[in-house]
């Protein structure tokens, strides 16, 4: 893939994930070509990569449209993620180093600070870093790749869950429980803590779907 195609892909992907481009929105090739300063052929290649990640849908003679997920599809993805992340947590509890645990402690402290100051963007960044450490410590790249595909597709919905009343406090408690289980290197408890965390995300989205999409 050329640098121009990479740039176009990243440009569009970021705006899909942050909500600038909304579900079911048609992507106008002519307008985007002018905005991004790439050819329409380059855009088509970028669209194809986005389609492979299930972020856009390409129809013949209609172009590309931002993928829209139904509530059932979102629930199914999160059920899959719950199972895979539970397996990853078991492996992480077995493999995690003291250095990883210290890093998780530091991130959790920052998450608490961001909750208190309502810095939700910073909280989300720490949240991602927290889980990335768990993923890396699991030494299961195949499982992590599957999780990241799902998280990428649902990021625009998941990001908004922190705005649901009470969710930020619950999220912090869930991450604390995950860390405590990992510190004990208790594989079963770590799996259950992570699965509970994902199930709570699922329930939050299910109960607030109208406001999150």
What characteristics describe this protein?
10 helices; three-stranded antiparallel sheet; Arc Repressor Mutant, subunit A; Four Helix Bundle (Hemerythrin (Met), subunit A); mainly alpha; 2 domains; 213 residues
Description of the structure:
The protein has a 3-stranded antiparallel beta sheet. Helix 4 packs across helix 6, helix 5 packs antiparallel against helix 8 (167-183) and helix 8 runs antiparallel to helix 9. It is mainly alpha-helical and 213 residues long. The model has no long low-confidence stretch (mean pLDDT 92). Strand 2 and strand 3 form a beta hairpin. The protein is built from 10 helices and 3 strands; from the N terminus they run H-E-H-H-E-E-H-H-H-H-H-H-H. It has helices at 3-17, 29-36, 40-52, 71-95, 98-116, 120-138, 141-158, 167-183, 187-207, 209-212; strands spanning 26-27, 56-59, 63-66. Helix content is 75%, strand content 5%. It is elongated. The longest helix has 25 residues, at 71-95. It folds into 2 domains: 3-66, Arc Repressor Mutant, subunit A (Orthogonal Bundle); 71-212, Four Helix Bundle (Hemerythrin (Met), subunit A) (Up-down Bundle), CATH 1.20.120. The chain starts with a helix and ends with a helix.
């Amino acid at each position: 893939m050329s640098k121009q195609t990479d740039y176009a892909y990243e440009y569009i992907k970021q705006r899909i994930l942050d909500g600038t481009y909304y579900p079911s929105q048609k992507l106008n090739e002519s307008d985007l070509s002018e905005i991004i300063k790439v050819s329409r052929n380059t855009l088509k290649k970028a669209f194809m990569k986005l389609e492979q990640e299930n972020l856009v849908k390409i129809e013949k003679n209609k172009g590309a449209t931002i993928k829209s997920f139904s509530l059932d599809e979102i629930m199914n993805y999160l059920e899959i993620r719950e199972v895979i992340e539970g397996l990853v947590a078991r492996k992480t509890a077995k493999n995690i180093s003291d250095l990883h645990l210290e890093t998780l402690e530091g991130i959790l402290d920052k998450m608490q600070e961001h909750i208190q100051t309502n810095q939700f963007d910073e909280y989300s960044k720490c949240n991602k870093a927290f889980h990335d450490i768990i993923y890396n410590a699991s030494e299961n790249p195949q499982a992590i790749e599957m999780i990241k595909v799902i998280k990428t597709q649902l990021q625009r919905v998941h990001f908004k869950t922190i705005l649901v009343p009470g969710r930020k406090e619950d999220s912090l408690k869930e991450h604390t429980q995950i860390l405590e289980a990992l510190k004990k290197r208790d594989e079963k408890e770590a799996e259950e803590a992570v699965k509970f965390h994902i199930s709570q995300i699922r329930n939050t989205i299910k109960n607030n779907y109208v406001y999150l999409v």
